[in-house]
Amino acid sequence: ERCVANQYSHNFNAFITPLARAGQWLDRVREADERQEQGTPKSAVDGRLISVKDNICTRDLPTTCASGILEKYTSPFNATVVDRLEAAGAVVAGKTNLDEFGMGSNSINSRFGPVKNPRRDASGEFLSAGGSSGGSAASVAADQCYASLGTDTGGSVRLPAAYTGTVGFKPSYGLISRWGVVAYANSLDTVGILGKSTANVRDIFDILNEHDHRDPTSLSVFSRERIQHSLHNPQLTSRLKSTPLRIGVPVEYNVSEMTSSVRRAWAHSLAHLKKQGHTIHSISLPDTKHALSTYYVLGPAEASSNLAKYDGVRYGTRAEGPDGDGRPDGYLYANTRGEGFGQEVKRRITLGTFSLSANAIDNYFIQAQRVRRLVQKDFDAVFTAKHPLAAHGTGITKDNDVDVIICPTAPSSPPRLSDLMDKSKPKSPLEGYVTDVYTVPASLAGLPAISVPVTVSGEQEAELAGIQVIGQYGDDHLVMKVGEMLE
Ligand code: GLN
Sorted alphabetically, which SUPFAM superfamilies does this protein's record hold (predicted)? Predict the structure, then answer.
């Protein structure tokens, strides 16, 4: 009840649809309380309020994707992840605000207005909550729920976690079902989890980490066994139990754009791990400097195809206009999309349509796919464990490599909302894209990555930054374990 009261008393615009103040959810929480008292809780989240990003379908609440085009849309079914949480006794704590269809890094591209970060800067100014799962992160940070489900295509769970001081986890691609999750870029999309601690996030991950026959990209039971066999074989299991771990620090990530507080938090985290007996090794990921541009070719290309279905006929809102042989001043399809989509979504559809067009595809889309392979290879070359799903990939090969990689989640602390929204100082979209430089490599390679809040004493006051742990494909529990060491 306190969480729901917080949803109404603190307006960070974290929710597009909050929970009703008086509602059926209360009965479900009380039933869970009884089970708790009897010592028979359904799971670690029985009776917990878990908010859900508004691009994940729910039968009982609308799913808008923060878009005009789905403004009044309610799905006829629940996403698998929602069904799984409910079966575990959790209660959906409302639908959280986001950048339209997940496109953005500050949760300001929303039909329902920007999300405000519950943390403000020293002068009391509102800061960006990060994006695109900014509403999910803010709802956790402001105690408006216990934890939240977001989606992470190129950093959308990790970046908001870093900006709001929460924990954000992006699992290996294909582990958590995407059925009922509105697609942005299918080959990159994952469902991620935001919580106050890694332990909370792990509980939820363990509930959701199962094969789903309705999602064709959900990892098969066979492949899951193969991961177990490969990553948890006797020679490697020591990594989960004892020290020391080999920690990698990518030399290329030490960019000049990084602010001093982020640099301090990174150094502090490495020193902390070293003190616990782990060893630090510099590694090279030479192709990751191309990861950002690759991501911003592939993401929009997939999005342009996915978003073609919003035509005013099958889903969502429909604008006025003649159907088919209408006048040059507008047809139903053009009017619906023109009015329904926001500026950033239109930009990406245009970009994606171009890079897939006959004249451009070889130079953009195909090249980007090649670079994506190189980024994946870079990671494979530095991890001790081989990629468990690679052609001949079981077991261990090398002994001079690393178990996990540690780097910042974002190059700087959250920008002020007023600066981002100031129309007199128009920003190039590229400025926003650069924020994703540390998060997109793991997305392109499908690897598990977590962002945890790290506080260091700064020049004047304590400073907070998100530090990221990236691991080999399928090594999700190791990534969370190292994240926990840094909390
Ligand atoms: N900021 C990135 C983008 O705009 C990532 C978004 C995401 O992960 N959904 O595409």
Answer: Amidase signature (AS) enzymes
Express each pLDDT in 129-164 by its tens digit. 999 999 999 999 999 999 999 999 999 999 999 999
27 and 105 co-located in one domain: yes
User: Which residue is associated with the tokens 């920008």?
Assistant: 415
Q: Are residues 423 and 399 in the same domain?
A: yes
Ligand 1 contact, 102 CB (< 6 A)? yes
**How many domains in the chain?**
2
Q: What is the reported pTM?
A: 0.95
Which residue is associated with the tokens 């640099």?
263
Q: Are 132 and 274 within one domain?
A: no
Pull the structure tokens for residue 55.
């691009």
* Domain span including residue 155: 2-221
Quickly state the pLDDT bin for 461 (edges 50, 70, 90). Answer: confident
Q: Which residues pair with 151 in a beta bridge?
A: 191
Q: Which long-range contacts (CB under 8 A, 24 or more apart) does 286-290 make?
A: 286/252, 286/378, 287/371, 287/374, 287/375, 287/377, 287/378, 288/250, 288/252, 288/253, 288/375, 288/378, 288/441, 289/252, 290/371, 290/374, 290/375
Which of 173, 201, 221 corresponds to the end of one domain? 221
- State which of 203, 221, 239 marks the end of a domain: 221
CA 104–ligand 1 middle distance (angstroms): 5
The answer to whether residues 42 and 180 belong to one domain is yes
Does the ipTM exceed 0.90? yes
Residue 53 is assigned to a structural domain of this protein:
yes
Average pLDDT value for residue range 362-383 = 96
Q: Which residues contact 120 (CB under 8 A, 6 or more apart)?
A: 126, 127
Whether 174 lines ligand 1, by a CB cut-off of 6 Å, is no
* Residues forming the active site: 53, 132, 156
Q: How many angstroms separate the CA atoms of 310 and 12, rounded?
A: 29
d(CA 349, CA 303): 7
β-strand pairing of 126-128 with 116-120? antiparallel
Question: Is 294 part of any domain?
Answer: no
Q: How far is the CA of 474 from the centre of ligand 1 (A)?
A: 22
> 476 CA to middle of ligand 1, Å?
21
Tens digits of residue pLDDT in 204-213: 999 999 999 9
Residue 323 lies inside a defined structural domain of this protein: no
The number of the ligand 1 atom at minimal distance from the alpha carbon of 151 is 9
Choice from 97, 103, 169, 431 to test ligand 1 binding pocket (greatest atom count within 8 A of CB): 103
Q: Is the CB of 133 under 6 A from ligand 1?
A: no
